[in-house]
Amino acid sequence: MPFYQFNGIKPVVHPSAFVHPQATVTGNVTIGRDVYIGPGAAIRGDWGAIIIEDGCNVQENCTIHMFPGVTVLLQQGAHIGHGAIIHGATIGPNCLVGMNAVIMDEVVLEAECIVGALAFVKGGQRIPRRSLLAGNPARIIREVSDEMMAWKTEGTRLYQQLPQWCYETLQPCEPLNEAQTQQPLRVVDYQVFKKLS
To answer: What domains sit in the chain, N to C, each tagged with a CATH number?
Structure first.
């Protein structure tokens, strides 16, 4: 069971959201419509609140937490990549936080920002809309192009469809002892973004 009451407060999860059984959601956490929470994610609303708005995804092994009295906000369509850490920050609508990136306390990412994999965003910064950040410490490299934002939005749309697909098909099983012909995966026309200009 991935949900835990803390100090009398239970998480609130929209019925269309999917929280993997191996994730952990504790206390003052609100999860909206069509949200995907991957296995290994730790979302801990003990010292403050966590609000994950509609259409967000928090992928495998992410951590979301805060200092006492702080609310962490993931706004609509925020996309949090594998292993990222969000601590006491606000992630704006349709932002992407790359794999293993760290977003520190009191950071505000305005709408449609993209934070590169392994980036470290120092606390207290307000990052303007459509900024592309990378590095440790992270710095703004350039503005996010329309083409890059369209690619990000399409990737998030796949994650918004994933909860229903999980409800339809995900189930515990015993592994096969050897390879056999099985039903093929759903074909998705989505590629790695290679053009950075």
So the answer is: 3-143 (2.160.10.10)
